[in-house]
Amino acid sequence: MKVAIITGGSKGLGAALATEMFQYGMKVISVARTRNEKLEQIAKENQAVFEQYQCDLSNRKETEELFSSISKELLQQNASTIHIVNNAAVVGPIEKIGRISSEELEKSLHINILAPMLINNMFTAVFQNTSTQLIVVNITSGAANHPVHGWSVYGPTKAALDLYTETAALEQTEGEQKPVFISFNPGVMDTEMQTEIRSATKDNFKDVEKFKEYKEKSILRTPNLVAEKLAKLMTGESLETGKVYKINDLL
């Protein structure tokens, strides 16, 4: 049995990727704040096994309890391959340093970097001495590579996620099935995150007009297109562990 676990799987790229994974005959597990009834219907039409769990990834205890349960269940089911797609992320707070509340800062750090680290750490521990192939895909961003005004939280968390991916890949060199860790940059997509970005004020986010122009000129890619390319990449046989893949290289 092959499995795809997708955080933020109820919307945007996560939902599009879940739909793609149905085509590959995988059991798909979505972990998100909300449920997607349409995905359940699509799964039925494709005779796919689909599970949805609601979880607040900014809550460490809730995250640990859920993924501990999922990992134990998959261990009992003797899953042959497990794809973990750490897709859930928040772009906010879109605000200058000095104006960000401690609560906003903590929530963003939990969702964008701590949750993926907790999940990856847990699954690596559970499956490191088994025959299960673990493939981890951490969704990153171009904002990881350069500073963006107003993104003092989002950009640094994505940069941290990329370095974490490289470090994890460096460490996982032993075992029957060596885990694979990659980062994937999907580029700019037409999602709710983009809507949030365009709603920011110019005082908080100097590049807001540029992102509005992306929408007006139809520059934004569809999540379906990106999901199609990502699904093909992560199920292929030539994944290079530790690499940061970019959507532009797959088009």
TrEMBL record:
Gene3D superfamilies: NAD(P)-binding Rossmann-like Domain. Its EC number is 1.1.1.320. It is found in: Cytoplasm. SUPFAM superfamilies: NAD(P)-binding Rossmann-fold domains (SSF51735). Keywords: Cytoplasm, NADP, Oxidoreductase. GO terms for molecular function: oxidoreductase activity. Its main location: cytoplasm. It holds the Pfam family adh_short. This is (S)-benzoin forming benzil reductase. It comes from Bacillus spongiae.
